[in-house]
Write a structure and sequence with these properties.
The chain is built from 19 helices and 14 strands. By secondary structure, the protein is an alpha/beta fold. It folds into three domains: about 120 residues, Winged helix-like DNA-binding domain superfamily/Winged helix DNA-binding domain (Arc Repressor Mutant, subunit A); about 230 residues, TIM Barrel (Alpha-Beta Barrel); about 70 residues, no CATH class. An eight-stranded parallel sheet has the order 4-12-11-9-8-7-6-5. The longest helix has 26 residues.
Length: about 475
C-alpha cells in the first residue's frame, strides 16, 4: 500500500478512536453531563487565574458569541463562574468552580493513563522515536495549515538576518560590526550604553549619548574597511527617558536602522522624518502590527521598513504576561501568518521573526509560516565577537534547560532569565525589580553573573561552544 495513504488511514483512525474512548470514559465519570466540546472548553478556562472571555475564545479559536452560548450552559451546570471585575464592569472573566476543576483533573488523569498504557508496550528507545515521529507529524500539519503552499523558498540570505539588541553591554559596536560585515543587520543596544563611562554616575545622559555615538561610528568604520554590505543600527525601548535625544544622537552618528519596541513607537517616524534610516518596530501580535501601520500611515504617510515579531521564547522582558505565555507559544506560528497578512499590502515591509530562533531548523520553520527573515539574540552571545563579559558567555555555556526561569516584574510582565542568587531574591520579593533592574544588569555586564540579572532566550541551553559570527551566518544561509 502507498505509504502516504497508509499514514492518512492511521491518523484518521487514531483521531476517531481517541474521541470514542474520551466519550466512553466521560459517560462513566462524575462529569457525565458534559459533552466532549464542553470538557475542552473548561480545560481552556483552566484551574489557574480567571481568564477573560476573549482570552478563552482565542485559545479555543472560536468567536466570543459562540463561547458565550457554551458558557451559559456550563454556568447552569455548575462548572463555571462568570463575573465582572470592579475596575472595569465591561470586562467579563471566567473561572472554574470546584466541580469544574475536579472535572478537568479527572479528564487529565484519564489522558495521562491512556498515554502511559500506550507507552507501556514500547521500549524506552521505541517510545522516544514514537514521540519524536508524532511531534514531526504535528509540526508538518501545522505548517501546511498555516501555509498550504509547499513551494515557498526557505533559503535565508544574510540581509534578512537581524541580530537582537541586548543590553546592557552585551550587543555593542563590536558584535554589531561583525554581523554587518557578514551582510546582516547588526544592532547596538541603546539601553545604558555608557554604563562604563567615567562620568556615568554623575551624568548618565551624556555618558550614554557619547557611548552610543562612538559605538555606532566605530562599527560603521569596521564594516566599511572590511567591505561589508550589512547595516548597523540601534535598538531603543519605547517609551524611555530621553528617547528622542538618543534617536537623534544615533542618526547623527550614522545609524542605518532604528529598532524600537516595548510599546507602540508612534513618535518615531516624526523624529526621523528628514532621514533615510530604516524604521523597524517590534510587535508581539497582529493587533499591535495593525495599530502601528494605521498610526504611521495616517500621521506620517509612512509604513515600517520591517516589523520584528518577538515571540514568547525570546529573552529578557517579553511582550506577554505570565498568563499569556502558554497560549502565545501555542499560537506562535499562527501569529506569524496573521502578522504577515496585516502587512501584505506593504510588500516592501519585511516580517522578521525572533524569539526561539537558534539554528537553521528554527529559521526554516519561521520562513515556512510567512517570515521574510529572522532575529537571533542568545545565539550571538557565545561568539568571539560578542561584547559580553567572558563570565557572561561562560554561564550560557554551562547552563541547562532547568536553569532558565521566568520572573515577573511588579507590572505583571514576564521576563526570561537564568537562575542565580539575584533571581532567587526576586522570587521572594518582585518589588525589588522596580529599583534594581539597571544595577543588576550592569552587575552582570561587568562579570558578576551570580548577583546580577542575566537575560536569556528559551534555547540558551543549546550553546555548547564559543563560535564566530561567520560560523552562524554560514549555518543559517547554507542550502543543504
Amino acid at each position: 500500500m502507498d505509504t502516504a495513504k497508509r499514514l492518512n488511514e492511521v491518523l484518521t483512525a487514531l483521531f476517531k478512536s481517541v474521541l470514542k474512548v474520551e466519550e466512553s470514559v466521560l459517560k462513566k465519570s462524575d462529569a457525565r453531563d458534559l459533552s466532549i466540546t464542553e470538557i475542552h472548553t473548561i480545560e481552556a478556562i483552566g484551574g489557574g487565574k480567571p481568564k477573560t472571555m476573549t482570552h478563552v475564545a482565542a485559545e479555543l479559536k472560536i468567536n466570543v458569541s459562540t463561547l458565550t452560548a457554551a458558557v451559559n450552559k456550563l454556568v447552569a451546570k455548575g462548572y463555571v463562574n462568570r463575573f465582572r471585575i470592579p475596575e472595569d464592569r465591561r470586562m467579563v472573566k471566567l473561572e472554574l468552580t470546584e466541580k469544574g476543576a475536579f472535572a478537568v483533573r479527572e479528564h487529565e488523569r484519564f489522558r495521562l493513563a491512556m498515554a502511559k498504557d500506550a507507552l507501556a508496550l514500547l521500549s524506552s528507545e521505541e517510545a522516544e522515536k514514537f514521540i519524536r515521529s508524532l511531534d514531526n507529524v504535528n509540526e508538518f500539519m501545522l505548517m501546511r495549515r498555516i501555509n498550504p503552499s509547499s513551494e515557498r523558498k526557505i533559503n535565508l540570505t544574510p540581509d534578512r538576518i537581524y541580530q537582537g539588541g541586548m543590553g546592557i553591554g552585551i550587543s555593542m559596536g563590536r558584535l554589531a560590526a561583525a554581523v554587518a560585515v557578514c551582510g546582516g543587520v547588526g544592532i547596538i543596544s541603546a539601553t545604558e550604553p555608557g554604563y562604563n563611562e567615567y562620568d556615568y554616575k554623575t551624568n548618565a545622559f551624556e555618558a550614554n549619548k557619547r557611548a552610543l555615538k562612538r559605538n555606532i561610528r566605530e562599527a560603521l568604520a569596521v564594516v566599511k574597511s572590511a567591505g561589508g554590505k550589512g547595516l548597523v543600527g540601534i535598538n531603543i525601548t519605547y517609551p524611555s527617558a530621553n528617547y528622542e535625544d538618543y534617536v537623534k544622537a544615533a542618526l547623527e552618528a550614522g545609524a542605518q536602522v532604528i529598532v524600537s519596541g516595548n510599546g507602540v513607537p508612534t513618535a518615531l517616524p516624526g523624529i526621523c522624518r528628514d532621514s533615510n534610516v530604516k524604521l523597524v518596530p517590534v510587535v508581539s501580535s497582529a493587533r499591535a502590527a495593525s495599530v502601528i501601520i494605521r498610526s504611521w500611515t495616517r500621521k506620517h504617510n509612512r509604513a515600517p521598513d520591517a516589523l520584528i515579531f518577538e515571540g514568547p521564547l525570546a529573552g529578557g522582558y517579553l511582550g506577554f504576561n505570565e498568563e499569556q505565555l502558554k497560549t502565545a507559544q501555542e499560537n506562535f506560528y499562527n501569529s506569524i501568518a496573521e502578522i504577515k497578512s496585516e502587512i501584505e499590502s506593504f510588500p516592501e515591509c519585511w516580517l522578521i521573526v525572533g524569539g526561539g530562533i537558534y539554528d537553521r531548523h528554527d529559521a526554516q520553520k519561521a520562513l515556512l509560516c510567512g517570515a521574510d527573515g529572522v532575529q537571533l539574540g542568545s545565539r550571538f552571545i557565545t561568539t568571539e565577537e560578542c561584547d559580553a563579559h567572558e563570565n557572561y558567555k561562560k554561564v550560557y555555556l554551562n547552563c541547562c534547560e532547568s536553569d532558565i526561569d521566568i520572573i515577573v516584574n511588579p507590572s505583571g510582565m514576564a521576563c526570561r532569565v537564568l537562575k542565580n542568587k539575584f533571581t532567587y531574591e526576586v522570587r521572594k520579593d518582585p518589588e525589588i525589580l522596580k529599583d534594581r533592574v539597571t544595577k543588576a544588569l550592569i552587575c552582570s555586564a561587568n562579570g558578576d553573573v551570580e548577583n546580577g540579572l542575566v537575560f536569556c532566550g528559551a534555547k540558551a541551553c543549546k550553546a555548547v561552544k564559543i563560535e564566530t559570527v561567520k560560523d552562524i551566518f554560514d549555518e543559517l544561509t547554507s542550502r543543504v
